[in-house]
Task: structure prediction
Amino acid sequence: EQTMVYYLGIDIGTSGTKTLVMDAKCKVLATATAEHPISAPKPGWSEQNPDDWWDSAAKATKAAIRKAKIDGKKVAGIGLSGQMHGLVITDDAGKPLRPSIIWNDQRTAKQAAEIEAAVGGRKKLIKLVGNAAMTSFTLTKLLWVRENEKKIYDKIKHMLLPKDYVRLKLTGEYVGDVSDMSGTLMLNQKTRKWSKKIISTFKIDPAILPPVIESHEISGCLTAAAAKKLGLAEGTPVVGGGGDQAMGAIGNGVVADGLTSATMGTSGVVFVHSKEYKTDPAGRVGTFCAAV
Result:
């Protein structure tokens, strides 16, 4: 029993945060869920308070560890997964400047059209970042804030996605991963780095964008405060993790050419793995970095 190690998965979903504890042989010992609310201040708007995700993550983590009947200090690593595209903007201290505009928010049709026009059309945008501009993507939300909430925009020091805000609370680090960030319209997926062309075209301060790592890389370690809140050991490594679809693909073994998964969650997604970077010039199919 002394040598037993466990792993914790935290998934920041749209309606709640789900956690999972497994042993070194990948046997799932327990799962738990804690709900968090969605607010719709206007028709078509969809927002969440990032601190609700953090509270839910703590609640669900403690519940899963209790159910698994293990010592939380024996958790050897933490993986993250989460709803994609949501815009989290913070000040220098990591405090959110406004509620997160999440993936299913529909207010940004104007910005989506502006993005395609600014780079010379949909085909050119797909060439740059693998996807057409849709209201769900993060860049549309960032530009909406600039156009409608200039005072808030000017205070932005960091831009994160939902699971990366939870990472910040866990580790104190501002980090993103390739699979999730490829859903922002700002990542050059061929190089797996931020697109210089997008950043310059839209005059985005590159300093607000976090470093981007691969899903399996260690992004930071649990702070003393986070360890205490979750009942885990300080210094526990937290890996890059990924967007919920990329993470679900790994869980289902969709990690090689020709394998496909279909997910029916708050959104419905068909996910196909490709070992090469491919795009659909017509924009009917999205392209995202895999987590492998």
About this structure: Residues 17 and 57 are 6 Å apart (CA to CA). The longest strand covers residues 16-23.
